[in-house]
Structure formats: C-alpha cells, structure tokens
Amino acid sequence: MVKTAPLLKVIVVCFTSRGEKMSRGREDRQVAFCFLLLAAIWGYLTLQIPPTSIPGTPGPRFFPWLLVTGLVILSLVMLVGSLRQPADEKQVDADAKKDIDWIGLGTLAMFFVYVWMVDLIGLRWGTLVMMPFFLFVSFRLRNIMEIALITLVLAFGVDFVFRVLLKMALPMGSIF
Amino acid sequence: MLSSILTGIGEATQLSALVANLVGVIVGITFGSMPGLTFSTGLILLLPVTFAFDPVTGISLLVGVFIGGMTGGSVSAILLGIPGTPSAAATVIDGYPLKQKGMAGKALGMAVIASIFAGLVSLLLLILVAPLIAKVALQFGSVEIFALVLFGLSTIISVSSGSVIKGLIAGIIGLMAMEIGLDPVMGVHRFTLGYEPLQAGIDLLAAMIGLFAIPQIIKDLPRSQGETGIKIEEKGITNQLPSWQEIKSCFGIMVRGALMGTGIGSIPGTGGPIAAFLSYETNKRMSKHPEKWGTGILEGVAAPEAANNGVTGGALIPMLTLGIPGDPGTAILLGALLIHGLQPGPLLFQNNADVVYGIFAALFIANILTLIVQWFGIRLFVKILQVPKTILLPAIMVLTIVGSFAVRNNLFDVYVMAVFGVIGYFLERYDFPTTPVILAIVLGPTLETEMRRAIIAEGTYTAFFTHPISAVFIFLTLVMLFGPTVKDKIAARRAA
Predict the structure, then answer these.
(1) pLDDT tens digits for B321-353?
(2) In chain B, N or C terminus with fewer CB closer than 10 Å?
(3) Which residues of B touch A47 (CB under 8 A)?
(4) Is A173 domain-assigned?
(5) Which residues of chain A lie closer than 8 angstroms to B165, CB-CB?
C-alpha cells in the first residue's frame, strides 16, 4: 500500500523548491480550492459517462479519471506549498493584496455583450453599437470624432475586407 | 519524389502564395516589432483568413508571419531597448547601445542579415534532416506515438517559466477542454450536458484565439487616460548595410548562432529566447575582446539574431516529422495544418509530400521577403511602432470574432472563444502560463486516442515500458519532469 502523505510531501518539495516563489500564498490557496472544486465537478460529470462495453480495456471514463486524479494531486500540492510559505512572506503577501481589475473585468463583460449583439444583429451593426462603449470605457478615448471614425472604419472596413474581398462568411444576425 | 518537389515549389511560387507570404511577412514584422503584441497573436488572427486559400497559399501566409515575426522583434529591441518578442531580448544588450551611438541603421542591417542567413541555414538543415526522421517515425505504432506525444506534452515544464505546478494544472485544463464532445474510440457523449452544439467538441482555433488574443487585449488596455503611442526619435534611422569587412568579421558568429538555433529549436519546449541568450554567451566567451560585448558592437547583435532565426527551421523539424510543437508559434502552425485536413507527422511526408515541399519553398521565400521588406520598410515600421494601441487593439477585438466564426460559420464557436478568453484572462491574472493549455489542446486528442488504442491492441498497460522506443520517450519525459529539480538539488547539496 502506497502511503500518500509522504508521496505528496516528496512532490511538494520537488516542485515548489525550484526557486519558485509561492509569494501569493493566499491567492494560491483560493485558486487551489477552486481547482479542487473543478475536479469534484469533473469527477461527478465523469460518473455520468456510460461505462465501457469492452471489458478489460480503458473506456471513455478512463482518461477523464486520470485528469481528475492529476488535478486533485496538483491542487493539493499547490495548497500545501502555499501553507508552507514562511510567515514573513505571508505578511508581504497580505500587504501586496491585488486591487480588483475593474477595467479588465468590465471589458470582459462588455465583450460578452458584444458577442451577444453580434449574434443578434450581426457583426457590422454589433460593432457599430458596441465599439463606442469599448473605446470610451476600456480604451479611455474621449474625442467623439476619433471614436466615431474608429468605429466606422472597423465596422465597415472589416466587413468589406472579409465579406467582399475574401468572400468569407460573417455573422449576419439572427433577427435579420 | 521529384514531381512532389516540383509541385510544392510550383504551388509556393504562385502569385497568390507569394502575395500571401508577403502579407504574412509584413504582419509578422509589425506584430513582432510591437512590444506587447506577439507574432503568435498575429498568427492566430490570420489563421482564419487561410480558409479562403488552398493549403500551400494559406500556410505561406502563416509562414510569412512566423519568419517576419521572429525577425521583427529586433526592430524595437534596437530602436526602443524593448524586445518586441522574448527571442529578441538578448539583442537589446548590444543593439540599443548601438542606437545610442547613432548606429541604429547599421544595427538593424546586421540584425536582418544575421536573421536571414540563419533562417536559410536552418531551412537547409530542415530539408536534409526532416525526411530522415519522418522515415524512422513511420515505423511508430500507437504505443510509440502515445509515448512521443507524452514527451511532447512534457515540454510544458520548460514553457512554464513561473511555476511547474501551475504549468501542469494549465495543461490539465487544456486536456479537459478537449474531452468535451464524442469519445474518440467508443463514440459516447462526454461532458456535453445534453447540449447539442457541444457534441462536435471544442473548436481548436476558437479556443486558441480566446486564450491568446483576449488576455492580450486586456493586458494592453490603457490604465490611465491619455496614454499615447511610443515616440521615437526618427532622425538617423535609415537602412544602412554593414560593410563587407563587418559582415566578414561576424560570419563565424552567424554560423555558430545558426547551428545553435537550429539545434536548440529542434528540441521541443526550448525556443528562441534560450537559443539567443546561449548564442550570445557562447560567442562572447569565444570572442577575442569579450569586454566590448554589451557596449554596443555588431557581433552582439549578430549572435542572438542568428540564433533566434535559426530556431525557425529547427522548431519545424519535430513539428512536421513527429507532429510535436515545441512553442506557441509551431503549435499554431500545427493547428493550421490540422484545420486544412493535413496531419503533421511522418505520414505527411508520405501522403502530402507536395505540401511539405511547398512549406519548405514558402519558408525560403519568406526569408527573402523578410530581408526585402525589413530593409526597404524600416521607416514604415518606425511609424507603425508609434501607432497607438487604442487603434490596434479594437481591431484585434473585431478580428477575434471574425476568426472564431470563420472556422465553421457557427456563432457557438464565437461564444466558445469568449469563454476561453475569460479562462485565459484568469489564468494570466493568477500567473498560470497559457502555452501549456494550447499544447494540451493540440496534443490532447492524439494522446488519449493512441493510449487507448495501444492498450486495446496490446492488451496490457505495461506495453509502454516494454517497447524500446516508447520506453526511451517515457524515460525522457521523466527526465524533463524531474531532471531540473534533481539537478538543482545536487547543485544545492554541493554548494552546502
């Protein structure tokens, strides 16, 4: 019987002592928990896959189980590594807590709205509607003429190059 | 054989292929020279455009980006002291001091000559070596292919510069994504949640666009109002060839750099930065006046530039012959071949020899075009470097949608791209490398299919250790995984 705790210790020492800075102990812990949760969900979904019909051979569940096992082990290693962090580093860590990247997250959210708009009204009109928001909020442009010009060039220029010149299909919008 | 070579060369020299190659070179130099924008992003964005062309024309476009991008990194390294690509980091050491001495034109001239010389040497080696490796690899069965792909995946270790654990987790995320859809052996649904569009699986290109382009856009967003493009003092920046005497004095350095670049490039997971720094250090040590290196000498530009372009041919050896990409650039090229219905590996040389020789011809043309474009277009690239990102990034944003939609004319892929954009954003935010995800996405399906086929065919799980070639690759995988750690431990013990 393999003793898992010493094995885990060996892996932790092996991979976390290579000059790696686990300087973000708290963040790493949170991320490790997220991956453990993902592994649990993936494991549950793996159980929903019908088992193999050929006995003695690896079925469709085999590889997903391998990945779940790998993810659990690596997440635990990450977790243990973050707990092994020296106290002074933890302090530095707490001091250097990251600000929330509102611009980045906001841009991502707007991007989903943009994709939804493209789905609804097509690339050309979707770009015309959404690009000014991107340029104003994400790219911090304040010149109305500049915003209008970039929006028009992108909306019609991309349409012309890809649809007209290269004869490629572009999203036309589900409502049209 | 001869007819395949002639067909390949004929296809690569068609007007459409030449124009595509030229456009690729221009895009490559542009993306390569702009700090923050990698030529991998350029490759990803142009990949969907290749659907409009035949395989050789499409690949010519991408090969142009690949060669142009690798060379273009030197432009900003010399002019701004900021490497446009990681491979050009070593060029800054002597390139930027040369610019400060008012010799920017000469430094750029030497960079492009060394790059193209090395690119052509590595291409020659690729042409000579690749068919031989492909012939050997043709003997591989499922057991060997699995072990080989596993070895290819172990390069995740070397591309995970920050943390190996995080790199491995990122690799598993990529493998998980590739499990969605129909099981490759039994055909049963996996992780589709009863949602029909997921049955076809995650599209490779949509995932790659999301992972590369979206985090790049967000990373480069202006964090303060009024951020403008880079200002460069254009005075004195002209194209200026180094003298024959100067080229002659750098010839040995260029040869060494080219050979080192090709050799290092052919090892999956190494790539341009390692080759460039190694070449710089080696040539400096071999120099009669090492003290001058770093103060702004042409040799210090020739050494890294020759090595990083030598990598281009070297990296294509495992990609074309074994289907193993060693870095993001070759992973994208591999994806491009797959999308065009071509399976890189030994069979490519047997079944699509014309395409292989077309790629070789396209590489040669791309090197020549890069020389011409970078030579005559230096003033243009100085101007492009000054274009604010507030114009370039929105364009990239629109192109991500065009690109992901173009694969299957399906909006579902655009949503997939956006989701992978979010995954890529969070991975980067928490210092997880994204390249392992790409490697896993590209190699994952083959890994699983061949592993299961091998076990079914051999009837035992131990087959991977009893077949000699497979055992060697598994041993090499273990060396890749644990070797650096063991080496560090031994060094630490000796030091103590």
Answers:
(1) 888 876 778 888 888 888 888 888 778 777 888
(2) C
(3) none
(4) no
(5) 15-16, 20, 74, 77-78, 81
Is residue B226, in this structure, part of any structural domain at all? no
- A97/B contact by beta carbon, under 8 A: no
Out of B166, B186, B459, name the one closest to residue A59 (CB): B186
For residues B169 and B4, is the Cβ–Cβ distance under 8 A?
A: no
C-alpha–C-alpha distance, residues A99 and A81, integer Å:
24
Range of the domain at B99: 2-219+235-495
Quote the domain boundaries for residue A73: 4-95
Domain end position, chosen among A47, A77, A95: A95
For residues A16 and A61, state if they share a domain. yes
Residues A82 and A113 in one domain: no
Query: What does pLDDT average to over chain A?
Result: 81
What whole-number distance in Å separates Cα of residue A149 and Cα of residue B219? Answer: 24
| Residue B229, domain member (yes or no) | no
A91 plus A8 within the same structural domain: yes
B428: closest chain A residue by CA: A104
Structural tokens at position B489: 């431990």
The domain tally of chain B equals 1
CA gap B86, B38 in Å, rounded: 9
- Cβ distance of A104 and B218 shorter than 8 Å: yes
Q: Residue A72, CB half-sphere, CA atoms under 13 Å: how many?
A: 12
- pLDDT value at A101 more than 90: no
Residue B427 within a domain: yes
Phi, psi of A13 (to 5 degrees): -60, -45
What φ, ψ does residue B343 adopt, rounded to 5°?
Answer: -100, 105
Of A66, A95, A124, the position where a domain reaches its end is A95
Work out the mean pLDDT of chain B and round it to a whole number: 83
Instruction: Decide if B214 and A71 are in contact by the 8 Å CB cutoff.
Output: no
Show the DSSP H helices in B138-187 as ranges: 142-153, 156-159, 164-179
Cα–Cα distance for residue pair B97/B340, rounded to 1 Å? 45
- Please check whether residue A58 touches B, CB under 8 A: yes
Mean pLDDT of B3-18: 83
**B228 inside domain:** no
Look at residue A175 and tell me if it is in a domain: no
Same domain, A56 and A31: yes
How many structural domains are present in chain A?
2
Taking only the tens place, the pLDDT of each residue in B366-403 is 999 988 888 787 777 767 666 777 888 898 899 889 88
Give how far A54 is from chain B: nearest CA, Å: 9
User: Taking a contact as any Cβ pair under 8 Å apart, which residues of chain B between 77 and 106 contact chain A?
Assistant: none
Q: How far apart are CA B131 and CA B109, in angstroms?
A: 34
Chain A contacts of B425, Cβ < 8 Å?
104, 108
Chain B residues with beta carbon closer than 8 angstroms to that of A67: 172, 175-176, 179
A64 and A142 in a single domain? The answer is no
Share of chain B above pLDDT 90, in %: 11
